[in-house]
Design goal:
The complex is a heterotrimer of chains A (99), B (500) and C (560). Chain A is mainly alpha-helical and 99 residues long. Helices cover 79% and strands 0% of the residues of chain A. The mean pLDDT of chain A is 89. Chain C contains 21 helices and two strands. Chain C has helices at residues 7-24, 31-55, 89-107, 117-136, 140-149, 151-161, 166-194, 202-207, 214-231, 240-247, 250-275, 277-304, 308-328, 332-363, 374-377, 379-393, 399-410, 424-453, 459-462, 516-534, 537-555, and strands spanning 66-74, 79-85. The chains are: A mainly alpha (99), B mainly alpha (500), C mainly alpha (560).
Chain lengths: 99, 500, 560
């Protein structure tokens, strides 16, 4: 069974994703890092689904893919909104409010 | 390939699951209303858009009817889709809270949208979708359903937070909420995948049967931790609270009310579902974690709130701190005080919804005149708007937990739950809570001081005109806050019988 | 079970709220109507109270809970609406009604700045409900709710109608009290669970106090101790009191001194001691020592004060020290004295605050140094002040004596039974120190009275200068207002208390002696001080049975 290799890949992707979310200052890159995490989840789910020979893991992954698409749509819309108002999508400069 | 799969007799022919339409009626009604709003928006002229809020409001009340009929039809839990979706007394109660809170939010939004010249059809469509997600969360007993409900309630909320399109603050509010929300749900999903990997099922009950105390694998522990962290973002528990103040301050005020009450409540409902059904034996893992979060959430929220000069931002921190109080009973769930803790949380959510929505109604009403969010803009409110002044005082007193207003029942329940546990942990949490409820009065009291004891800024003592929808919201919340405090039985008789 | 007339307590407690409801519909511009409705409500409430007194069964029945009501309230948390009246609560229950009515009558022409009689009166009516409810509640949660109801109205009363430092004082009052009651609530809950989580009813808790181990009980008592001691206030928790009293409007000070402080001592007698006798015995020496520190500290504090109201406030700390000393002996004798002292202190200190308020009203200051010779200008008020000072220092024949003297005496033989006893040497030492306290009390009160009342009228009292020391005689020579020439060439005495007196030979025509509303408000208190002083048995007879009953759990201690 190749399960541990799959899980390792998932864990590595997850870590890269978390690292990206924390370090990247560009909104689009942060979005992409989050996508990486979601993909690591999908890999995990598919691996476990195979291990248990159980379909619910694969269904879960399908749901995640669909919802992630919706999420990214909203996210890009928000980024676009900021770009329109500010001509910039750096997260560091998003600091209208303090306290 | 596919044809061979379909043809093979290994796969049983697809049979439609049995659907209990009565049990799903609230969701179905709500879905119908959502479509109705969307369609009506297409055909209505700009001047008649007010009809949309009426449809949305009545639709929410209509969805409440099946909840009542389900409640009187007996306490039998109706389980569907292999246990993934369960309609029982607990889920009916939280659904009721969501629908009524949603109705008040619609009342709050009506004039705000009309006068602010915002898109109305889409607004109500998204608001109702988010409420539908919450209603679904009440019944979700499966990792997949919880995930779908969570996204269903969150994605519209991201857009609503950024509804004031041309205002950079609102953009920032939406973006921060979005990025942290999506990140949190990704972390949560990773945790869910680990839980699935450890137990081989996504049904919460099945997970609960597999996860036993003492024999828990590290994978499962990691899964529980990640899942709880994911929802800690949703309920803005320290240290995952950073988004809340900015989002609350920047979002349109009715949406802030919605996020601080309904969205937060949905997060707690999800946590309850998970902890009570999936990790009832995981106390060793989640109790210390949630206990520490509860203590630090209420303390940090309070301390930060003391320093604020903007009312909405102050309330954002206040709501963080109240979240700490709601987490408090959760920290002893799984032990012998499980039942008390469940009662306490649901009661707290109901009381908190009535009180906080009422306070936001006052904020919206006052800012119609003052056009300011500063604490000092409330100076002398009592002298020129006595009714608003008294209502605001009542809501603040309720948040501070002073009898005979609703808040004390909520706080009392939380204390009762942690003390029932009988552990030193429980007592320590109770003491931290007691001290915090005193600190909280520092800022609730400072608002009261503005209302009663400070001069009116600019000496402008023109009375405040409140539209009828806002008046209705104020009366509903004010009445509920007082009634819950004087005859707490009206909520406790329900929240006491619920079981999971 | 005594069930006749048991509706009367509920009516007596909630009637003020009916007045509030009516007043909500009257615009605030109708000041007189608002005041009239409030006063009528308070009067009817007192009438209900008097009927309660009339129906109350005295004699051996006075120890039983009468007018007992026990109906469901919050079944989910096992809290019930249980109310009842016995010999200990009755005097305090009636006192709260009397004081509220008198304070309202006094308010007829003394609404403090910034006005708004409607709101002021509504707050007082809400206060009345909270106070009366606390004294009749026989369920911990009900007690807690009523106990807290008084917080907000008092906060606003001090914060809105108070003096210069009102915001600081009101917040301090609130935070202290709230801190106490938060811990108290935790203690109540702990008590509930330690006794089997069956009931919050006091009757049940009295009967099951022995279920709790002493170690746990001591901690639960600590929570209650903080809650009640803040309210009393006892020595380390007293700092809110002088500020609150000094800044509160007269009416607020009177209610605070006469009733609110009693909620704390009442809590000790009604709840803390009988529900946790095993812990009470452990805590009694601590309470006794703190009480005596309070007595001495309060007295020394008084000597240092220059402001009359602050002085009275510190004297309250000292007097409540005597009450707590009586309670700490855990004897029937001591607790009888304590309850007597509570009522007497309510009458006397309430009266002193009324007087201080009236003096401030006339002269716009309470600086003792600026006063002198008020007997010459307003003799009736002066003599009433004299009488109250005497009563306050514990002159035999006036009410104060019967609270103080037996309390000190009771410390001679503190509680002991066959198994448990309190340290006799300690309490006898405390007794001696407390006795010194009474001497100090006589010292500061007489000193205050002498400086305020005797001698020649000071420039302020004589009307030569105003409260800030500005010369009121436009043409007078500097240093020429020795005060002994009362009628002079001062024709144009200006502000503040001689408005419209231009051309009048006597510029203080406006500084009148005791006015009609003052007479109405004060006479009952003065009569009370004299009657209770002359015939103490009137109240001891009512108290004794109930006190014995409340002490039964302590008597039954076996030291196990």
């Amino acid at each position: 069974m190749l399960i541990s290799e799959f899980l390792l890949l998932g864990a590595v992707l997850f870590c890269i994703g978390v690292y990206g979310v924390i370090v990247r200052k560009n909104a689009v890159l942060v979005l992409m890092s989050i996508e990486l995490i979601l993909n690591s989840v999908n890999i995990n789910l598919l691996a476990f689904s195979l291990k248990y020979n159980d379909i619910s893991g694969q269904t879960f992954a399908l749901y995640i893919i669909a919802v992630a698409a919706a999420e990214v749509g909203v996210g890009l819309a928000l980024v676009l909104l900021i770009y329109r108002n500010k001509r910039n999508i750096s997260l560091d400069e998003l600091s209208e409010m303090k306290g | 390939m596919l044809s061979t799969l379909l043809a093979s007799d290994v796969v049983a022919p697809f049979s439609s699951p049995k659907i209990d339409y009565h049990a799903l009626a609230p969701e179905l009604v709500l879905a119908g209303v959502i479509v109705a709003v969307l369609l009506a928006d297409l055909f209505l002229e700009e001047s008649k858009k007010w009809v949309l809020s009426t449809i949305a409001g009545f639709g929410l009340l209509a969805a409440f009817i099946p909840i009542v009929t389900l409640a009187v039809s007996g306490h039998r839990a109706r389980s569907m889709f292999g246990g993934a979706y369960v309609v029982d007394t607990y889920s009916l109660l939280v659904k009721g809270i969501f629908l009524l809170a949603g109705y008040v939010v619609v009342l709050l939004s009506q004039n705000y949208l009309e006068e602010g010249d915002y898109y109305q059809g889409e607004y109500y469509f998204l608001l109702l979708s988010s409420i539908l997600g919450m209603v679904m969360m009440g019944s979700s007993r499966d990792l997949v359903t919880i995930f779908v409900s969570l996204e269903f309630l969150s994605i519209p909320a991201y857009m609503l937070a950024a509804w004031r399109k041309r205002d950079l603050k609102s953009n920032e509010a939406g973006t921060k909420y979005y990025l942290l929300g999506v990140f949190a749900s990704a972390v949560m999903l990773y945790g869910m995948s680990l839980l699935y990997g450890d137990t081989g099922t996504t049904i919460l009950k099945g997970i609960g049967a597999k996860l036993q105390n003492g024999s828990m694998s590290p994978v499962a522990v990691l899964g529980i931790v990640f899942v709880i962290i994911g929802f800690a973002f949703k309920v803005s528990a320290v240290p995952f609270h950073n988004w809340a103040p900015d989002t609350y301050q920047g979002a349109p005020t009715p949406i802030t009310a919605f996020l601080s009450v309904a969205s937060k409540a949905a997060g707690f409902v999800a946590l309850i579902n998970l902890i009570y059904v999936a990790f009832p034996h995981g106390g060793d893992v989640f109790q210390p974690m949630i206990g520490v979060m509860a203590a630090s959430t209420m303390t940090l929220g309070n301390v930060m709130a003391l320093r604020q000069t903007n009312i909405v931002r102050m309330l954002a921190y206040s709501s963080i701190s109240q979240g700490g109080f709601i987490l408090m009973p959760l920290a002893v769930a799984g032990g012998k005080s499980s039942g008390n803790a469940l009662t306490a949380i649901v009661t707290y959510l109901a009381v908190y919804a009535a009180t906080n929505l009422g306070l936001f109604a006052v904020i919206i009403a006052v800012s119609r005149k003052t056009r300011s969010g500063e604490v000092s803009s409330w100076g002398g409110l009592f002298s020129y708007a006595p009714l608003l002044g008294v209502l605001a005082t009542a809501f603040l007193a309720s948040l501070a937990g002073i009898p005979p207003l609703g808040g004390w029942v909520a706080k009392f329940g939380a204390f009762r739950a942690v003390i029932t546990s009988g552990t030193n942990w429980g007592y320590a949490l109770a003491i931290v809570g007691a001290v915090n409820s005193v600190i909280a009065f520092g800022y609730y009291g400072s608002l009261m001081r503005e209302i009663w004891m400070k001069p009116v800024p600019d000496g402008d003592t023109a009375p405040i005109r409140t539209p009828s929808s806002l008046n209705a919201a104020l009366m509903i919340c004010g009445g509920a806050t007082l009634a819950l405090g004087v005859v707490p039985g009206i909520i406790l008789r329900f929240s006491d019988i619920i079981k999971l | 079970m005594l069930t006749d007339h048991n509706w009367i307590l509920t009516v007596g407690v909630f009637l003020p709220l009916a007045g509030v409801l009516i007043m909500l519909f009257i615009p605030k511009e109708e000041e007189s109507l608002n005041k009239a409705i409030a006063i009528i409500t308070a009067a009817v409430t007192l009438a209900v109270g008097i009927a309660t007194m009339a129906w109350f069964k005295y004699g051996s029945d006075s120890s039983k809970l009468q007018f007992h009501v026990d109906v469901a309230w919050i079944p989910a948390i096992k809290s019930r609406y249980i109310i009842g009246l016995d010999g200990v609560s009755m005097p305090l229950y009636i006192l709260s009604m009397v004081i509220t009515l008198l304070v309202m009558i006094y308010s007829w022409d003394h609404i403090p700045e910034p006005g708004n009689a409607k709101a002021f009166m509504i707050l007082m009516l809400i206060l009345q409900t909270g106070m009366a409810g606390t004294f009749v509640a026989q369920d911990l949660i009900l007690f807690f709710v009523f106990f807290e109801v008084v917080l907000l109205p008092m906060y606003f009363m001090i914060g809105v109608w108070g003096g210069e430092q009102r915001q600081y004082a009101s917040l301090k009052f609130f935070l202290y009290t709230m801190f106490g009651s938060a811990l108290m609530l935790v203690a109540f809950l702990a008590l509930f669970f330690q006794t089997g989580a069956q009931s919050f009813s006091l009757e049940y808790l009295y009967a099951h106090s022995s279920m709790i181990s002493t170690n746990v009980a001591v901690w639960i008592f600590a929570g209650m101790f903080v809650g009640f001691a803040v309210k009393v206030p006892m020595f380390p928790f007293h700092t809110w009191l002088p500020d609150a009293h000094t800044q509160a409007p007269t009416q607020g000070s009177v209610i605070l001194a006469a009733i609110l402080l009693k909620l704390g001592t009442y809590g000790f007698i009604r709840i803390a001691i009988p529900t946790l006798p095993q812990a009470a015995v452990k805590w009694a020496p601590v309470i006794g020592v703190l009480a005596v520190i309070g007595i001495i500290y309060g007295a020394l504090g008084c000597l240092a004060q220059t402001d009359m109201k602050r002085l009275i406030a510190f004297s309250s700390v000292a007097h409540m020290g005597f009450v707590m000393l009586g309670i700490s002996t855990l004897t029937q004798f001591g607790i009888n004295a304590a309850v007597y002292g509570m009522v007497a202190h309510g009458l006397i200190t309430g009266m002193l605050f009324f007087l201080a308020g009236s003096i401030k009203n006339r002269y716009h200051t309470l600086e003792i140094a600026k006063m002198g010779g008020i007997l010459k200008r307003i003799p009736r008020l002066g003599w009433i002040l004299g009488m109250c000072a005497m009563a306050s220092l514990g002159l035999p024949g006036l009410a104060g004596f019967w609270g103080e003297f037996p309390a000190i005496l009771s410390a001679y033989s503190p509680f002991h039974n066959d198994y448990v006893h309190l340290s006799q040497p300690l309490f006898r030492t405390l007794m001696v120190i407390a006795a010194i306290g009474t001497v100090l009390a006589a010292g500061y009160l007489l000193w205050m009275f002498q400086r305020v009342a005797f001698g020649e009228a000071s420039p302020l009292i004589a009307g030569d200068v105003d409260a800030d020391g500005n010369d009121l005689h436009a043409g007078a020579h500097a240093g020429d207002h020795a005060g002994d020439h009362l009628v002079g060439e001062r024709g144009h005495g200006a502000v503040p208390f001689s408005v419209g007196a231009a051309g009048n030979a006597d510029p203080h025509a406006e500084v009148h002696d005791v006015g009609i509303f003052e007479w109405i408000a004060w006479t009952p208190l003065l009569i009370g001080i004299v009657v209770l002083g002359a015939y103490p048995d009137l109240m001891f007879k009512v108290l004794n049975g109930s006190v014995t009953k409340l002490l039964a759990p302590v008597q039954a201690l076996t030291g196990k």
